[in-house]
Amino acid sequence: MGNRMGESEERMKVLVKEKIAQAGVDVLKEHFDVDVRTNMTDEELAQKINDYDAIVIRSASKLTTDVLANAKRVKMIGRAGVGVDNIDVKAATQKGIVVANAPGSNSLSVAEHVIGLLLAQVRDIPNASASMHAGKWEKSKFKGEEITGKVLGIMGLGKIGVLVAERAKGLRMEVIAYDPYVSEERFRELGIERAETPDDLYAASDFISLHLPKTPETTGLISDAAFAKMKQGVRIINSSRGDVMDEAALARGLESGKVASAGLDVFSAEPVPVDFPLAKFDNVVMTPHLGASTNEGQDRAGIIVAEQIVAGLTGGVVTYAVNIPSVSKEAMETIGPFLPLVEILGQLLCAVADGPLSKVTVHYEGELAEHDTRLLTLAVTKGLVEC
Predict the structure, then answer these.
(1) H or E element in which residue 200 lies
(2) pLDDT for 298-356, tens place per residue?
């Protein structure tokens, strides 16, 4: 909005707060002045946030309400990855800031990491390697299991879940999945058995891989009650969100033997504390949120998010915005010219209002009313908060 939908006289400025692919930085530099400040703390950003028109982050930065409190200049936040739970999307939306991510950029990387965690725990590869590094030859100590014919239960059949399923089937595993938002027809197309409830999946699976977003419903989903319904000796993989797993319940499951092993790439607190309780278990394979950390995945994420920033700041279509509708090129031709105008109207309304505004209603008529007007309403909101 404002200068977002057209070139400004003054070159706009973008902060790259976490490391992304150089190719992505180069895309940004073609259009904007770019600051790469990977050592900037969130507190420093809160002080300097109005130096920038857009901010690019990965998973480590926390763009909270406090960080965004004084964000009057920022027009876009780009997340070089998929999850946006480290961004207060509601606060950003209230300030008229578009939040965009890079879905699919690292899905393959995460799926391959899941298979790696599965094999690492079932063959005890980390402990066997550590033993040899210690100068030992303990061949009889590390006896694993085959995975052929074993059942992998997948919680969440999104893009990553599907990629994991395809690879597991290639390893001759049986695959069952639970996802109430995926149609029966899609399950048939994929050749995957559908679990009607999570309990059905728990009861059937030798391995369970979690691919769930963090929501109020999924937080703590894998709990003592869930473990009680699983097979004796179940093996768990979590590469989705740490809060989906009740880590204390997992520790109890490991201590009792209900859970044979676990492979974890995500945690409820990152980085984990020095005295992290699960670190004492030799049968827990842990990696520091490496699922997306491949050269190829990072290249894709960096380029995609850079392209989203360019589109958003120069009047194009932000394909992967998470808090505004995706607007077609044809629709943008109609509503785009009105965006600077309605932002100014929002500023004007704020200026002439007699006291704080508790509610603003926007009505659309004519050709504009035939289109999705949420982007226009967001521009009005931005004008109001920038007054």
Answers:
(1) helix 198-204
(2) 999 999 999 999 998 987 778 889 887 666 666 767 887 888 888 888 888 888 877 77
Q: Which residues contact 85 (CB under 8 A, 6 or more apart)?
A: 213, 214, 241
278: which DSSP letter? Answer: G
Catalytic residues, which ones? 241, 270, 289
Is the per-residue pLDDT at 4 higher than 70? no
Contact status, residue 219 vs residue 244, Cβ threshold 8 Å: yes
Model confidence over 177-199: pLDDT tens digits?
A: 999 999 999 999 999 999 999 99
Other beta carbons within 10 angstroms of residue 153's beta carbon come to 27
For residue 84 the two structure tokens come to 């946006």
d(CA 117, CA 210): 12
pLDDT tens, 356-376? 777 788 888 888 888 778 778
Beta-ladder partners of 194: 177
One DSSP character per residue, 339-384 reads: HHHHHHHHHHHHHH-SS--S-------GGGGGS--HHHHHHHHHHH
Q: What are residue 325's phi and psi, to 5 degrees?
A: -70, 150
- Model's pTM, two decimal places? 0.74
The two structure tokens encoding residue 256: 């009792």
Q: Which of 358, 342, 347, 338 is nearest to 383 (CA)?
A: 347
Token output for 155: 């919680």
Report how far residue 22's alpha carbon sits from residue 273's, in angstroms, rounded to the nearest whole number.
31
Residue 28 has pLDDT above 60, yes or no: yes
Please, which residues have CB within 8 angstroms of residue 355's CB and are 6 or more apart in sequence? none
The structural domains of the chain, ordered by start, are 2-105+295-385 (3.40.50.720), 107-286 (3.40.50.720)
